[in-house]
Design brief:
The protein has 201 residues and is α+β, with helices and mostly antiparallel strands. It has helices spanning 12-34, 68-75, 134-142, 176-181; strands spanning 2-4, 7-9, 41-52, 55-65, 80-90, 98-112, 117-121, 129-131, 145-151, 160-171, 188-200. It has 4 helices and 11 strands. The strands form 3 sheets. A 6-stranded antiparallel sheet has the order 8-7-6-5-10-11. Strands 3-4-9 form a 3-stranded antiparallel sheet, covered by helices on one side.
């Protein structure tokens, strides 16, 4: 601390420290004001694991319990990403499970304010699906999804396996640096969900 007459002039280290504290306070203030409470849930339904032309395929549907949080985000101009990751692992007896095959799927949904309609993009489709009714659009698009996990020959008879599906619904416009600065804060629109299915082949 430097002293000049009747005034106290903070040192450069002190000023930088104060600036850092102020910046963190501003960031946290923005996060707490903008981040809504997570009230909805991601629910998995109609889960089917089977042999599809020699490949291990999984079919399932995703339903959102309550659309208010998602609708508010989309109306505010946020692009939301549905992420699905599915893996099949061989259950170990003494050691950790060994992952054999897996795949992931990402689908985005936005709102066209001028057209007053929602747009949903599914992988493999060249044009987004459109609709003014968000619930109907999600049901028609996310109500029946499929993933090709890998060759069926990855499974050896006489073993125990576990299918794991992880689902998330996240904001796409959150900067990466902000996720690291406030790593303790969730930027998910809905809380992520994880489902497991044990089976023997």
């Amino acid at each position: 601390m430097q002293r000049t007459g009747f005034f106290h002039i903070p040192s450069m280290t002190g000023r930088l420290w104060a600036l850092g504290v102020l910046l963190c306070a501003v960031i946290l203030g923005v996060v707490f004001v903008c981040a809504p409470c997570l009230a909805g849930e991601l629910e998995l339904g109609s889960l089917i694991l089977d042999n599809q032309d020699g490949n291990l395929g999984v079919r399932f549907g995703i339903r959102l319990s309550g659309l208010d949080e998602l609708r508010e985000e989309l109306d505010a101009g946020t692009t939301v990403i549905l992420g699905c990751q599915a893996t099949v692992s061989r259950k170990g007896r003494m050691w950790l499970d060994k992952q054999l095959v897996g795949a992931e799927l990402n689908s985005t949904v936005t709102k066209d304010v001028l057209a007053d309609e929602y747009r949903l993009q599914l992988p493999g489709e060249s044009k987004p699906r459109r609709g003014k009714d968000l619930g109907a659009l999600l049901e028609a698009s996310w109500g029946s999804l499929a993933l090709d996990l890998g060759p069926w020959t990855a499974l050896a008879p006489g073993n125990d396996y576990q299918l794991k599906i992880e689902i998330s619904l996240d904001r796409s416009d959150v900067p990466v640096w902000l996720r690291y600065v406030v790593f303790f804060w969730s930027f998910d629109v809905y809380p992520p969900a994880s489902y497991q299915l044990d089976f023997t082949y």
